[in-house]
Amino acid sequence: MASTLPVPITFRLPEGWRVVSPDEAGxxxxxxxxxxxxxxxxxxxxxxxxxxxxxxxxxxxxLADASVEGLRQASAxxxxxxxxxxxxxxxxxxxxxxxxxxxxxxxxxxxxxAQVYLSLxxxxxxxxxxxxxxxxxxxxxxxxxxxxxxxDFVRTxxxxxxxxxxxxx
Length: 169
What we know:
There is one protein chain. By secondary structure, this protein is α+β, with helices and mostly antiparallel strands. The chain has one domain (9-168): 3-Layer(aba) Sandwich (Protein Transport Mog1p, Chain A), CATH 3.40.1000.10. The protein contains two helices and ten strands; from the N terminus they run ββββαββββαββ. Strand 5 (77-87) and strand 6 form a beta hairpin. The protein is globular and about 45 Å long. Residues 164-169 have low confidence and may be disordered.
């Protein structure tokens, strides 16, 4: 069953990407999934969004490390190729790129993931911190083609103070 985001956000998808239910996409822990219009060698690049309230003081680096470890437990291998902090004190974030070797759809695959972690304050209760994770997953061959779309998408993500829904597109 699809999850919901801890804080409402708004964003704009790149042209051609289509929204599917997280359950349909095989990503039941996600709150949102979009698929690229052209699969590469049987794998469809996708953008997922998930998030949670973080009552602890875990850093974004610690959360990113936990994500890598989770991939390692589910995959043959996952390696961080780049990581950097983004944003500022009022809106901190972190980006990392991973190479992942796994089996998807019964086929061994070399995938690349771009992950963006955003620390957001709850618009209703600013004492509560939420972390939203935006993830692009693509084949190693298609990653350079879809990365610009993902970067454009990330630039549009904002807290949504106008609505009570979890996401808009």
